Amino acid sequence: MERIRLKVQLIAVVLFNIGILNLHFICFPVLNCHSCPISVFSCPIGIIGQFAGVGLIPLSVIGVVGLVGLVAGRFLCGWACPFGFLQELLYKVPYVKFNLPSWTRFVKYGVFLGLVVAVPIFFTTASPLYFCRLCPVGTIESAIPWAIIKGSTDILSLSVRLFILFALIISVMGHRRFFCKVICPLGACLSLFNRFAVVFPERSTDCVDCGTCNKVCTMETTQGSQKFGVYDGRAEECISCLECRKKCPTEAIRIWG
Amino acid sequence: MFRKTFLGILMLLSIAFILYGGFFRKFLVYDNLEKFDKLKSVGITIKIPGYEEQKDDFQVQSQSFTEPELVNAMTFDGVGKYRDGRLISNYPDLRMLKGRMPCPT
């Protein structure tokens, strides 16, 4: 299953950034910056922010995020998000590993409401606090490539972005999927649907309560906290990576809820 | 049972949002002639048919955008809000917003 997921993630990285197609009128619910010169789809977070800036609600985008969330919860975070894939690669780098307090998972809801929705409404999308102006995905996929292509850029803004990106890379090397757990506003939106999703890993009656799923869970903030993965039933943070299914001694984890 | 009912309601709502937003919702976006004048005053000429003529010939026009068209325009920061609240193109010509990445010079 791990190999299949790796292949799917690689295909997704290419598919979302293939460059020959420009389907920016379609929002695909993964964090992939539409300002990237070779991006194919538009980013739902960028669109929600831009619409908020002119006082509108993008109904079709909310509908797509809602529908995907209701069908598969945060499945796309675990299987298709290019930045999630990059984080998993970065975590493999040998570095000091650390745990996080469980309350940190609430930060991403604040990021969504504050930096994605409130800042464009009360200031503008040109505000330096607007999420897209700080987004590390935007830095990698848009700010750096455009600075190279155009040859000139706002040095101060780029420096701030690079500093945030650097801090994030350090954090991701120390804590698995740090961005997904603590910061990602799209993850915050999709996590709201996890408790209702159709496709979702759950423990069946074959479970012997050994806690192995909990120990290997990608989304646990503290090892063995039993709060965020499949051990807690339909936990908000589960990204359906199926690491737990692979390690389960009794094969007690089913995918269809 | 509660979960499935709630799931069904939310799913219907999401599909309704997609259908209404994707196919029926329209927005009126206005030309931004202020931007055109500003560019002209600093010596940038807009090479678009219709704009080579005299300034007196211009009139503020509006075009109806579907939500996907507006989403596309938003990806390059193409639409803003005017003082009176109406949507206005951030580029001199509305035609720059539809379907392609604009290049104003």
> By helix and strand content of chain A, what is the structural category?
mainly alpha
Q: Span between N and C termini of chain B?
A: 60 Å
SSE pattern of chain B: HEHEHEE
Order of helices and strands of chain A: HHHHHHHHHHHEHHE
Task: Give the C-alpha Rg of chain B.
Answer: 19 Å
**Mean pLDDT over the full residue set of chain B:** 77
Helix content of chain A: 40-55%
The proportion of residues forming helix of chain B, as a percent range, comes to 25-40%
> Count of DSSP E strands of chain A?
2
Tally of helical runs of chain A: 13
Overall pLDDT confidence of chain A: 88
The residue ranges of chain B in which pLDDT falls below 50 over 5 or more consecutive positions are: none
Radius of gyration of chain A: 18 Å
Reported for the largest beta sheet of chain A, the result is: 2 strands, antiparallel
Shape annotation of chain A = globular
**How many alpha or pi helices of chain B?**
3
Give the strand line-up of the largest sheet of chain B. 2-1-4-3
Roughly how many Å apart are the termini of chain A? Answer: 19 Å
